[in-house]
Amino acid sequence: MSKKIIRKKILKKRRNNFKNISINYSLIKKIFRIYKIDKNKTIGGYYPINFEIDCFKILKKLSKDGYKISLPVTKENNTLNFFEWSFNDILLVSSLGIPQPNKIKKVTPDVLLVPLVAFDRFNNRLGYGGGFYDRYLNYNKKILTIGFAFSCQKVNRLEINPLDKKLDIILTEKNINI
Fold first, then answer.
1. How far is it, in rounded angstroms, from Cα 115 to Cα 123?
2. Domain segments of the chain: what residues?
3. Closest to 172 (Cα-Cα) out of 22, 62, 57
4. C-alpha closest to that of 102 among 115, 116, 89, 117
5. Region of 124 on the Ramachandran plot (φ > 0 left; ψ -120 to 50 alpha; else beta)
6. Average pLDDT of span 108-131
């Protein structure tokens, strides 16, 4: 099945099945213990759109626990940069309609929570097709990547190309795929 068809099918499924489902904070803490991610590290999050699983509850708890939070700022050539952000800071709406932080302090996250449209058992990720995260991860290879998704977004297998970046972990409301 083509990426375009999978996107359409999964986005419809996500929209129709979206409920107030979240990822349990204890799963993130377990991953952080396994990978020795201590406090004062920078966590890259995202502003949830199009019925994506909400990572803001997790980010808020991580912030209270002493982690630094950052969010992406999109650029014209389908690239991203991450900027430090706190829950007291305002968000500005980008030209793509996505709230993003004011560009004050550019950072490289140690851990990146990644939104996705679909994933497979090999931790391949399908995004919206712009390649934003793939490009970012191509230049920032040492980041621990954790995909956030609903379990209904899993597909048997995704066709990948050399530019697609596999994620280290995919976390759903039901389990952890490492």
1. 13
2. 3-177
3. 22
4. 89
5. beta
6. 96
Q: Cα(25)–Cα(162) distance, rounded to whole angstroms?
A: 33
C-alpha of 157 from chain center: 20
DSSP string, 12-28: HHHHHH--S----HHHH
Read off the pLDDT of residues 15-63 as tens digits, 9 standing for 90 and up. Answer: 887 777 889 999 999 999 999 999 989 999 999 999 999 999 999 999 9
Nearest to 27 by CA among 109, 113, 131: 113
Question: What's the one-letter identity of residue 79?
Answer: T
For residue 108, what are the contacts with CB-CB under 8 A and spacing of at least 6?
42, 82, 140, 143
By CB neighbour count within 10 A (0-12 exposed, 13-18 middle, 19+ buried), where does 82 fall? buried
Residue 104 three-state SS: coil
The CATH code of the domain at 3-177 is 3.40.50.10420
